[in-house]
Amino acid sequence: MTSRPVLTVAALQRSLILRGLLKSTIDRVLETGSLEALQLRQQIYDVEETISDVYFPLNAVLSIVARMEDGSEIEIGTIGREGMSAFPLLMGHRAPQIYAIAKSVVLRLGCPPRCFVN
Predict the structure, then answer these.
(1) ∠ CA 30-100-37 to the nearest 5 degrees?
(2) SS3 for 23?
(3) Residue 60 backbone phi and psi in degrees, to 5
(4) d(CA 57, CA 110)
(5) Rounded Cα distance, 57 and 62, in Å
């Protein structure tokens, strides 16, 4: 059985966003977050699905994809270690009109949105 990587402050420092967190927030992330490997093209949330985890790609990228009315799809963004998957939450959308997939094998930090709420 393969063990899950350990979440440490050093791991958090790989994310350019997480480097700027206050100690109290870092403590919440360490308590509620987890590290795990996402597989290539693994979908992390879907269109109109409530976002339940915030993903910070630490060593690869995520692709943000919009599904058009005719069913076709287009990549509208790529997120690396400078970003996070749940930017729709910042804009007040809990169930966005886009979805996100791993563009390569990703070691990800996932934690519920509540770990970033004061």
Answers:
(1) 45
(2) helix
(3) -160, -155
(4) 9
(5) 7
CA dihedral 99, 68, 103, 19 (to 10 degrees): -50
* 113 vs 117: CA distance, rounded Å: 7
Cβ count near 87 (within 10 Å): 17
- For residues 117 and 95, what is the distance between their CA atoms, to the nearest angstrom? 18
Domain 9-116 of CATH type 2.60.120.10? yes
**Mind listing the pLDDT tens digit for each residue in 87-110?**
777 777 666 677 787 876 555 666
Q: What single-letter DSSP state applies at residue 17?
A: T
Residue range 29-54, pLDDT digits in tens: 888 888 878 888 888 888 888 777 88
Q: How many residues are recorded in the chain?
A: 118
Residue 74: strand pairing partners: 66
Give the span between the Cα atoms of 112 and 34, in whole angstroms: 10
